[in-house]
Amino acid sequence: MTRVLITGISGFIGGHLREHLSDGGLQVYGYDLQPFGEKVFVGDILDEMTLFHALEESSPDVVIHLAGVIKSNNSEMYYRSNLFGTLHLLDAIIRTEKRPRVIIASSSAVYGLIKDPHPITERSNLHPMTEYGISKVAQEMAALRYHYTSGLPVTIVRMFNLLGPGQSPNLACSAFAYQIARAEQNAQTEIVTGNLDAKRDFVDVRDAVHAFKLIAEKGGAGQAYNVCSGRAVTIQSCLDVMMSLAHKRVSVRMDMSRVQQDDVPVQVGSFQKLYKSTGWHPEISLKQSLSDLLDDWRERVKVELK
Fold first, then answer.
1. Which of 125, 130, 189, 208 has its CA 20 to 30 A from that of 115?
2. Whole-angstrom Cα distance, residue 45 to residue 33?
3. What is the arithmetic mean of pLDDT over 245-272?
4. How far is CA 238 from CA 8, 27, 107, 290, in A?
5. Range list of β-strands (E), 46-153
6. Within a 13 Å sphere around the CA of 19, how many CA atoms are in the beta-carbon half?
7. Spatial distance between the Cα atoms of 260 and 136, rounded to a whole number of angstroms
């Protein structure tokens, strides 16, 4: 593996992955809706001709497909981006002469509500509870069809809840960090939250991108791998950690409009399959992830409030 093309390279995961792979001496190319430094092709994930041009020019050994929609008020967008965007990418790959390994970034949302008390494995049934989760199941099934019918070496990566510097404030822990950072600058006086009782399996984005690299090198085609920590913690406990790191005391208020009606109460995964295949295991602690996320927001808020 010497040449990698990352779709969605300007995103949270994409930026970290680009840095990680570049530091490892690989030639990293990107495909995104917006310019993001050198070696990045600009285009829509639904534009098969532009995708084909990017693939021909970059001639990657590995394609890591991160582009997609995580949150939208328009249900159709999940399927247009996550499903049909993936189909356009894979069709463009089939048109090229190369057969690069393709890593599809999926999500623990495909598992949805699982009542088994044991950690979720890749053999667990898929019970998506959200439009996003359903779109990711469809994405996985469509991508694996190319493996079975065209021999394209496709691998699925199911990421659990990520944390780390650069994360969007649309996700709970990052939203808390953003609000704390603003409160420290006297820009607001309280932290507004949704449901704090849900338990989630958090993994640092820097551990996750290392998992992508190992999966690209050692993972099996046609396989799915969980990227997770193997333990569940409440959203409340994450907030408590960040509040203990805050430079000033702030109040907390729950906003019922932020409570998701289709929220899964508990989700925890097993990374044993990934460990056995690649030796990967999480290295960055939850406290370190939250601390780094908060420090990152402190710097971003300073710029925002100038």
1. 208
2. 8
3. 87
4. 28, 36, 21, 7
5. 62-65, 101-107
6. 11
7. 19
Compute the mean pLDDT over every residue in the chain, rounded to the nearest whole number: 95
For residues 24-37, give the mean pLDDT: 95
Measured distance CA(280)–CA(22) in Å, rounded? 19
Q: Are 247 and 140 in contact (CB under 8 A)?
A: no
Q: Give me the domains of the chain, ranges plus CATH numbers.
A: 3-162+203-227 (3.40.50.720), 167-199+231-267+284-304 (3.90.25.10)
| Tokens (6 digits) for 271 | 């990374």
Which of 41-45, 203-207, 217-221, 249-253 is predicted with the least confidence, judged by mean pLDDT? 249-253
Higher pLDDT, 154 or 116: 154
- The candidate with the shortest Cα–Cα distance to 201, out of 280, 271, 125, 104, is 271
3-state helix, strand, coil in the chain (%, to 5): 45, 20, 35
Query: Per residue, what are the HEC states of 232-273?
Result: CEEHHHHHHHHHHHCCCCCEEEECHHHCCCCCCCECCECCHH
The predicted model scores a pTM of 0.95
Phi, psi of 172 (to 5 degrees): -55, -60
What is the distance between the alpha carbons of residues 166 and 82, in angstroms, rounded to a whole number? Answer: 22
Residues near 101 by beta carbon (within 8 Å), at least 6 away in sequence = 1, 61, 62, 63, 153, 155, 216, 221
Distances (CA, A) of 167 to 54, 75, 82: 27, 23, 20
- The amino acid at residue 306 is K
Which amino acid, 168?
S
Task: Enumerate residues 6+ apart whose C-beta is below 8 A from 301.
Answer: 178, 181, 182, 184, 185, 187
